[in-house]
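Feature request disguised as a bug: please show the residue count (299) next to T9SS type A sorting domain-containing protein in the output. Example input:
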Amino acid sequence: FGQSWSRVETDVYNTEVNRLAFHVVDEDSFTVYVACEYVSDGTTSSYGVKKIGFRFSDESAHFENDMIGESGGVITNFGANDVAINEFGDVIAAGTNSAGEPRVYGLQADSLSWISFSTAGFPDQGQATALSWGFDAYSNVVPYVAVNNTLFALDTTFSNWEPMYDYPVGSNINVLYWDDLLVGTGTGLYAQYLSPTGIKDLEKAPGSFELYANYPNPFNPETILRFRLGVNSKITLSVYDVTGRKIADLVKGVRQAGTHSVTFNAARLASGIYFYRMKARPVNGGRAFVQTRRMLLLK
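Example output, currently without the count:
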């Protein structure tokens, strides 16, 4: 733990690891999600996403082999090619079943059961080879998945995957990295900027979220931060300095749908650039929203 490697006993048959994703639980522990290819000798098999929990204080590790589905049974017919975690702790995994059909599963933070995402919009046959958490036109956190040579995004209804971009046939997309989007393929890297059509910045859809620009900006010593919640949500609105150190939580808890405002007083802070970030999750279990803006304190 920090100086040497420790082996975690799993007793799992011939595991083929495709990707790892790490989630920091607290200062003493973290969790690793392991995406594993489907392998079988006809009698014994290995598949899906494995979970390993580590704790520093007693140098212990806990291994979970099975993906438990909504019905309480084990998800078996799934080879995971990629796995990713967002900052809320939500996990998604993409891969293929034994029939060669793309599949995506999700595990919400603090849940024990994986849910199966709709496959509507995907081709009937294909490898779901890579995924990433990203943002839609309204800055909602959504998953992006590569199937064959096409990039898909989950729509706002959670029921359909919309094709966003087609790469050259045979590209073998093997990695997605969001910022805006970096696509790694067998033939090279693509820097992809996704600009949705038919969206007007000043006409937000009903039920959408937004973190507005602070006013005044620059400011001294007070400024007003405004935000809009499309539905009742659990929200955190925090301020950070340029090093990423949290300065304050201005809002924390459940707030009703609508537009809200809060005053930030920086009388005790030095001049400079600061960031404010809103993280909101609908209380009805909908998708999370994250947005960050910059403000300037001039004294």
